[in-house]
Design brief:
Elements lengths: L7 H9 L5 H19 L2 E4 L1 H16 L11 E5 L26 H9 L2 E6 L28 H8 L5 E6 L5 H7 L2 E4 L19 E6 L2 H11 L29 E5 L9 H16 L3 E5 L7 H16 L1 H6 L6 H10 L4 H24 L2 E5 L12 E3 L5 E3 H7 L2 H6 L3 E8 L5 E8 L4 H13 L11
Parallel strand pairs: 2-3, 2-4, 7-8, 7-9
Antiparallel strand pairs: 1-3, 4-6, 5-6, 5-12, 9-13, 10-11, 12-13
């Protein structure tokens, strides 16, 4: 096994026990980037010299007995919305072509404090406003979409071009590309990870979170990054928590909600079969399955868009008027549409969100988590605009991908996407676990237990 193939937990253990140097790990990942990046295009920029320097610093610190923890010496990619002092934050847009960050974002500063090695910035759909990330190719089939908007981060992790990465999630943008590329994506509770220094899409829906190869890896990153930041008005004050799941696979006493409505409607049969098998595996580990009704399903899509669109337009108000031609056409249309939405529409969406949160809280008193597909179908071919379901219903690709992930953004509840198999074309299928606010540990425990019952998943067969 090459160092770039190691999970974060495996690499951290090897570095801690001096069986692997941060320099060896970083060089291995950089060589992998040189080999695979031309085909996959996960990165906006790769800061190889900076990464090598940071790896040497980590190696010296560890050799001197100053080991900072499991992220020390571990290579990471950051979605190109996340500020790093002195580096460009382009948001994959010409609008930001000349931008340079003056200070680190809070999460970048915490990664640096933990000793992580920054590899570079990963592609996003322009300003995170899309579900395909067209610049980047799927790690399993380069003719298919990577998913978005954190497509570059997910592909980098799936292909061994980063040991872990950070993304952002406003309607599914961590979980969707994670599901489509066969990796783990965690959207934490709203406000658990600070967003200071992170370019916003929609302030009331935006989350920062990790993309990793395992649930255990996600827990390691979450432990290092969670914590209050007074500069983020939504940031939560919570006690320091070690989110690492305990060993073992016993899920006795865990109540898992299985949706009767919404989450299995208009879902590809192979996706449904794989997710239901995974749910049965959780049952075999001792969990109790409870059927649940998903509330207010007819309002989910309208609420998501009525919150996101006007907030995004407000953020881009100045540049939309001064340099509209620098935006890609799909993003510009959405931003212009936001100017046509009324205050009444926005307030009704806020009221709908309040009701939705209350109803989800009621469900999550009856069960500890809800298990469902992350997305209704696997990665579509690049350029495909719609999905046609068996009953003749036609849905845009973006609407299809966001449909099952957006409830967790509207409610602010944590959601973890796990790979649970492949379809007949060999494309990954994802299952998401949704839980109570601030109960990431429950999701990570269930995800980790499930992973222990499966063969270790290797890297994607990148081009």
């Amino acid at each position: 096994m090459q160092p770039y193939e190691l999970t974060l937990a495996e690499a951290a253990d090897a570095i801690r026990t001096r069986h692997l140097s941060p320099v060896e790990l970083t060089e291995s990942v950089l060589e992998r980037i040189a080999q695979k990046e031309p085909h996959l295009r996960a990165y906006v920029t790769v800061a190889a010299d900076r990464a090598r320097s940071a790896a040497r610093d980590a190696a010296r610190d560890i050799a001197a007995g100053h080991h900072r923890g499991p992220l020390h010496g571990i290579p990471v990619g950051l979605k190109d919305l996340i500020d790093v002092a002195g580096s460009a934050t382009t948001a994959s847009s010409l609008v930001r072509a000349d931008h340079r960050a003056r200070t680190d974002s809070t999460v970048a500063a915490r990664l640096a404090q933990a000793g992580a090695v920054l590899l570079g910035k990963t592609h996003t759909h322009e300003f995170a406003y899309g579900l395909t990330t067209p610049q980047t190719h799927n790690a399993w089939d380069t003719d298919r979409v990577a998913g978005g908007s954190s497509g570059g981060s997910a592909v980098a992790v799936a292909a061994g071009m980063a040991t872990f990465a950070l993304g952002t999630d406003t309607g599914g943008s961590i979980r969707v590309p994670s599901a489509l590329n066969g990796v783990v994506g965690l959207k934490p509770t709203y406000g658990l990870l600070p967003r200071t220094g992170v370019t916003s899409l929609s302030w009331s829906l935006d989350h920062v979170g990790p993309i990793t190869r395992t649930a255990e890896d996600a827990a390691l990153v979450l432990t290092a990054l969670a914590g209050h930041d007074p500069r983020d008005a939504a940031s939560l004050s919570v006690p320091a928590t070690d989110y690492r799941p305990r060993s073992g696979t016993d899920l006795a006493g865990l109540r898992i909600g299985v949706p009767r409505t919404y989450y299995f409607d208009h879902v590809d049969p192979e996706t449904e079969d794989a997710v239901r098998r995974a749910i049965e595996q959780l049952h075999d580990l001792g969990a109790r399955l409870v059927e649940v009704e998903i509330p207010m399903t007819r309002y989910i899509q309208a609420t998501q868009w009525a919150l996101m669109v006007p907030e995004a337009t407000a953020y881009h108000e100045n540049t939309l008027r001064t340099v509209p031609d620098l935006y890609q056409a799909d993003v510009r249309v959405l931003l212009e549409a936001g100017e046509l939405m009324t205050a009444g529409d926005y307030l009704r969406a806020q009221r709908s969100r309040t009701l939705m949160r209350r109803e989800w809280a009621r469900i999550l008193k009856e069960v500890d988590l809800v298990a469902a597909p992350t997305v209704p179908t696997t990665a579509v071919r690049a350029g495909q605009e719609t999905v046609t379901w068996a009953d003749g219903t036609v849905e845009t690709v973006s609407d299809a991908y966001v449909r099952l992930s957006s409830p967790a953004n509207i409610t602010g509840a944590p959601s973890l996407s796990l790979p649970v198999g492949h379809d007949s074309a060999g494309l990954p299928i994802g299952m998401q676990l949704l839980g109570r606010p601030l109960e990431e540990s429950v999701l990570l425990r269930a995800g980790h237990a499930y992973e222990q019952t499966r063969p270790a998943s290797g890297l994607a067969p990148a081009a």
